[in-house]
Hints:
Layout: E1 7-11, H1 15-26, E2 30-34, E3 46-49, E4 52-55, H2 64-73, E5 85-86, E6 91-94, E7 100-103, H3 107-117, H4 119-141, H5 152-164, H6 171-176, H7 182-187, H8 191-194, H9 209-216, E8 219-220, H10 226-238, E9 242-244, E10 249-255, E11 258-264, E12 268-270, E13 273-276, H11 280-287, H12 298-303, E14 309-317, E15 327-330, H13 335-343, E16 354-357, E17 372-380, H14 389-408, E18 417-423, H15 425-432, E19 464-466, H16 477-497
Parallel strand pairs: 1-2, 1-13, 2-9, 6-15, 13-19
Antiparallel strand pairs: 3-4, 5-8, 6-7, 10-11, 11-12, 14-17, 14-18, 15-16, 16-17
Helix pairs in contact: 1-10, 1-16, 3-4, 4-9
Bound molecules: flavin-adenine dinucleotide.
Flavin-adenine dinucleotide binds next to helix 1, strand 14 and helix 16.
Amino acid sequence: MTLEGKKIIIIGAGFGGLSLAIRLRARGAHVLILEKQAAPGGLAQQIKADGFTFDMGPSLITAPDVVNKVFQAAGKNMEDYLKLIPLDPYYRIYFHDGSFIDYSGDTEKMKEQLSAFNPKDGKNYEAFMETSRIMEDAVMKKGLGSKPIMTWWAMINFAPKAIRLGLILPAYTYVKRYFKDMRSRFIFSFHPLFIGGNPFKAPAVYQMIPWLEKEGGVHYMPGGMYSLINAFVNVFTEMGGEIHCSEPVKTILTKSGKVSGVQTASNQYPADIVVSNADFYHTYHDLIEPAIRKKWTEKKLKNMDYSMSCVLIYLGLNTKYEMLKHHTLIISRDYKRLIKDIFDRKRIPFDFSMYLHVPSKTEPEMAISGGESLYVLIPVANQLSGQNWGDFKEEFVNSVLHYLEHTFGLNDLKQHIVYQSVFTPEDFQTHRNNYLGAAWGVEPKLLQSAYFRPHNRSEDLDGLYLVGTSTHPGAGLPGTLMSAETTERVILNDLKEK
Length: 498
Ligand SMILES: Cc1cc2nc3c(=O)[nH]c(=O)nc-3n(C[C@H](O)[C@H](O)[C@H](O)COP(=O)(O)OP(=O)(O)OC[C@H]3O[C@@H](n4cnc5c(N)ncnc54)[C@H](O)[C@@H]3O)c2cc1C
């Protein structure tokens, strides 16, 4: 279906906004993206300083097929824009007792390592992966994940399949059926953390990720994740799309109960359709008059649960550490208590679990010669913690660095730091407009998934749509790109019906 003659404004140039912009422009719409920040990319911004390059947010590429579909929608070849390098292992995961696993898609290596934890775990690996495959097939290949679920009827169609596949059980509960050792249970249930969710509450649908990783691999792009942002921007602008950066939208304008455009500090832009890629709470609370919001009232917005946040420490090092892989996870002694602190008690933990990204392991040019570009991601509670990070940042960062140097074993770490910067939950709020600094938006949990997630078509305003992390199906690069496919489908159906 062609969208010739339609004027569409997209608020935000994250992966969601950019990929939807490409899809709609490919159908002939006039598409303008208005972005608050000085550069496109959203959470996937990049820092270049003192000879080091850091992706600020996403770092792991899974599901290259989903990425490829965006290029296909534009009639382009992904290979002309991007190179993907498969990683092996996908990650190394260290446990508090010093043991570790090199997690990959290699069945024999995985069975051998899991058997060392508990012989039953090695035996059950293939049975678990088969259920992961079935979930992935239903959600990704058969399209359960990219079908809009905005009516009870769609939910009634969706629910029996989801229940049959066990998708609605809590992730950790699901995994306990297969694995005995705490370490194995962690390895196959932590994935919700990658998208801001609580592994003890997020639905088991995320257990499709181990199969997604095994089948499609985990990849790196030379230049880092920002190469994908650059590729999307290039495709979009080559097709005649427009992006205005440093132009935050202040208000979504309406006329006779329908969207009519947007207002920025300097301009008013008329539009037939507006799509928000910005944070869900920010979109409804700050950009739409309260009188228009029948569904997303103040009370409803506040009653939603928002994801965890994180502290990111970007370190330029003048040395290398053999114990780090391209992706490394370090799991704390009391992981369950840590998750409770983050999600339930909203306390800032000092018993750290963390994720380390070292792209210079694969591409040395990301760091100075002989050095390493390292980012440390420490999951923490969102700003319901009431933490003032201005005062506290230094103390927190020092204790993380102390832990890495003296407990984990990165010898003389502090001495080797030649560049350092930090991004806190407050920065997510200020720079990205993420309510409560919740870095992954609306928390992925059962009663905030599918029908219960903010819909791709606004429930409050005709002509307004959402794309990205906080709408269906959810966060993560694959989820966000699939949300663009879903929102495109909803827009096309709505226009057909008119
Ligand atoms: C630290 C971190 C690590 C992650 N790692 C991974 C990973 O390894 N792999 C993976 O698949 N996923 C990962 N994710 C998740 C992934 O990054 C996100 O799901 C995805 O980038 C979200 O894209 P988006 O388009 O929904 O939103 P965003 O990237 O948040 O983009 C929204 C855009 O809207 C703009 N905006 C906000 N308000 C306005 C306004 N009023 N006017 C104009 N513009 C506005 C913002 O500036 C921003 O550019 C990670 C997330 C984080 C936080």
